[in-house]
Amino acid sequence: MTIAPVCPAPITQHETVQMAHGAGGRLSQVLMQRVFMPHLHNHFLDLLDDQAKLDLPPGRTAFSTDTYVVSPVFFSGGNIGELAVNGTANDLAVGGARPLYLSAGFVLEEGFPLADLETIVMSMAAAALKAGVMIVTGDTKVVGKGQCDRIFINTAGVGAIREGVDLSCRNLKAGDSLILSGSVGDHGMAIMTSRQNLSFQSTIKSDCASLNRMIGAVLDAVPGVHAMRDPTRGGVAATLNELAAASSVGIEINETAIPVQPDVRGACELLGIDPLHVANEGKLVLAVAAGDADRVLEVMRGTEEGRDAVIIGSVVDDHHGMVVMRTAFGSRRIVDLPLGEQLPRIC
Fold it and tell me: Mind listing the pLDDT tens digit for each residue in 249-291?
């Protein structure tokens, strides 16, 4: 009897990320066709070239990049995928740009469930659709167990800056009104309370959202807005200090004007954290001439992202480079930059 040698067919279907998914071979193609292309495909990505060839409108182009390492990757109100899309779209939008195209680079830990990866990619597709941007190129690398925490995502983006718009942190002038689009601290506290080692539960949800449609409506109505920032890491406190320092002006804010959700305030008090230092991923700080503030407020409150917009203070020609807050008790205190990372890996 003759026994013929048998060569088993290679296994191409896995439930978790394998090292070979990032090796550029057959499993890389399987990952692309199974997880990425069904959800992200568009006429740029479908070509599968090493680059996307883009037609950009004439005028100035904004370019930005950020890397997202949030832990946990799934949190109340979102996940790392939509955070990566919204974060970069917002970084473009606060410069007066209409976000157009994004790239997405993935670093995956061996063993990461493919079902979780697909959920994240689907969220990215939904976030990109809502923001009006396309993910046109990308990359995937796989590292061994323990060499990263499940999944890291880098997104870079380009956008077209509106003609006649000049937003800069150096543009603040004494007399400007400062407008905040809504409650602070939601994202950072949602991440914190999603961590398994915390001993209490909460209903706090991240405010993760794209802001470019609200910003576009504001600039349609008042193109002369002086500055915009999304107060992410370091929160509103860091953003205001950066604006004051860059423009060499003082800033005064009113504590009672700053909206903080009761659950967020309670969690901050329990953990000893100032809500002004907590990150946001769907909020906007805006500086505009006082005469235009009511119009800007009206436009922002007419949008989903800005319905709770309020004036929180003004720019003054005093104590340059400093932020001073009038407290609920009528006293004044300096609002300084956070000394360190109070909530690590929140974005």
Answer: 999 999 999 999 999 999 999 889 999 999 999 999 999 999 9
Look up residue 161 and give its two tokens: 């800056």
Going by the DSSP 8-state scheme, the letter that residue 344 receives in this structure is: -
Separation of alpha carbons 217 and 93, rounded Å:
12
Structural contact between residues 207 and 283, judged by C-beta atoms closer than 8 angstroms = yes
Matching residue, tokens 């991923």: 281
Dump pLDDT digits (tens) for 4-33.
666 666 677 899 999 999 999 999 999 999
- pTM above 0.90? yes
Tell me which residue has tokens 């071979």: 25
Reduce the DSSP state of residue 78 to 3 states and report it: strand
Number of Cβ within a 10 Å radius of residue 314: 18
Put the strands of the sheet holding 285-288 in their side by side order.
227-229, 285-288, 177-180, 310-316, 250-254, 323-326, 332-334
Q: How far apart are CA 92 and CA 110, in angstroms?
A: 32
- Spell 215-227 as b/e; 16+ CB within 10 A means b: bbbbbeebeebbb
What are the distances in angstroms from CA 68 to CA 73, 325, 344?
10, 32, 12
DSSP 16: B
CA distance linking residue 275 with residue 15, whole number of Å = 40
CA 117 to the chain's CA centroid: 19
> How far apart are the C-alpha atoms of 288 and 101, rounded to whole Å?
28
CA distances, 233 to each of 144, 213, 237 (Å): 29, 22, 10
Of residues 253, 252, 157, 277, the one with CA closest to residue 210: 157
